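It is worth pausing here to work through a concrete case rather than discussing structure prediction in the abstract. The textbook approach is simple: state the sequence, then state the predicted structure, then interpret. We follow exactly that order.
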Amino acid sequence: MVNNDDWLSSISYLEFLRDYGQHFTINRMLSFESVKQRLAREAPFSFLEFNYMILQAYDFLELNRRYDAKLQLGGSDQWGNMISGCELGRRVDGAQLYALTAPLITTSDGKKMGKTAGGAVWLNADKLSEYDYWQFWRNTSDEDVIRFLKLFTELPLEEIETMEGWKGADINKAKIVLADEATTLLHGRDCLKAIHDTIDS
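Step two, the predicted structure:
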């Protein structure tokens, strides 16, 4: 893992704008769907956010220069920023760079799962205990549990489909299955006994 501070902290803002700002137009930025949606909702769009697109594009350029990175992966909400990085690499260095996005995972109420939505889930046990990780999945809403079983576990689909009609107390059993399976994938099955002992005490 690398830290973009390694190259961003030494940049002079005026030189950066001169050398890289010329490769970005407001027209192009406004053409991205995520920006169009924000403007249609009359949501504020700050100068900082336009700069973020340029900085993320520059990060990809530097990752290519330093580590020969050619593919950037991200959520579909980052498409504009990612494609800007591909274009910057082509314009500045003649590099052939690629972007691959995946749909954002949202909850049933339309909120995205992720750090910006206040739902960050650390994978490191020193940042989030195995118990708290388990609780995150246990607290999944009734409406999301079946979809999350399909997305975040390795259970056979046939087994998950048997849970689709569960209601009331049974849906809570499905949530425990989700929590157990997701926690097992990350931390191993050995931690489940301690988690269940804590819950049952």
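Step three, interpretation. The beta strands are 71-75, 98-102. The domain at 115-200 is CATH 1.10.240.10 (Tyrosyl-Transfer RNA Synthetase).
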